[in-house]
Amino acid sequence: MSELCDLQIHINGQHTFFLSEKILSKYSWKLRKIIKQEKRRTQIRRSGIAIDDFPGGPDGFELISRFCYNNGSISITVENVSLLHCCSVFLGMSEKASPVNLLHQTEEFLDGVFYWSWNEIVTCLKNCDPFFSCAESCGLIQKLLCSLLAKIAQNSDIIEHFLRALGSYGSQNNNLVLTRFLLHYFKTALHSNGGSIRYAATEYRGLADTAVHGVVLMGKTAFSCRGLFWVLRIVSGFGLSREGRAALERLIGGMLDQATLDDLLVSGGMEGFMM
Taking every annotated instance into account, which residue ranges of this chain make up the domain NPH3 (predicted)? Predict the structure, then answer.
């Protein structure tokens, strides 16, 4: 039994674990390094090693221990993925340690975050609170926040209410930042649907007109001739009104002397380009 529990690990000064050095170091290159350094300095078998600022404290390390003792396998859920991910980053549980590694498993699970529900994303984000600095430094917080923003962007009504609240909807839009945000939103929406136009004109027309009004207002000071052609191609797929199209075309007409042949080529999808 002594051989199976030949390593003492003190976590955050709160709890001591008696574990197998061989089993744990198999999945963590950082633990290997710490153990090797401690063995050079002192009798590790007598004093053990201390790890401070460990994500999740003893609870986090217990999950890591279960992963190691279960041959590199553990059930990953929305509830525990944030803790497991931060622990794996902290201990260097990557391919550098083992082909079967926790970091890859948590990253693979988190790749599906954009398909999670609102509650799942918020739950995962809240669970990061006890180890926020670690979650932020490894990019987990940013990933979760981006997924929340993506959820918001999927609903055009939310964006419309947001713009109205700022007094920047429709002809009231005189903000370049918001205009560029709308254009980026349309571009992202197109890419997420493989470039095909599947939107109801009445649903997105208000946003398209809002973006165009901002573009026309800023005009030559913010957009090149090529940029205006790009704007026309993007917003045309989102139910742009006749008035909005006419205003944008007039602006383009005043800059045609700056246009190149490439600017005049319009993408024809799989069939190449059309004039």
Answer: 142-275
With residue 207 as reference, give the H or E element that holds it: helix 201-218
Expressed as residue numbers, the domain containing 46 is: 7-152
Measure the CA–CA gap between 68 and 80, rounded to whole angstroms.
Answer: 16
What is the reported pTM? 0.62
Q: pLDDT of 70-85, one tens digit each?
A: 999 999 999 999 999 9
Which of 152, 180, 214 is a domain's end point?
A: 152
Asked whether residue 1 is assigned to any structural domain, the reply reads: no
Which segments of the chain have a pLDDT < 70? 1-3, 42-47, 153, 191-202, 259, 261-275
Asked if 181 and 123 sit in the same domain, the reply is: no
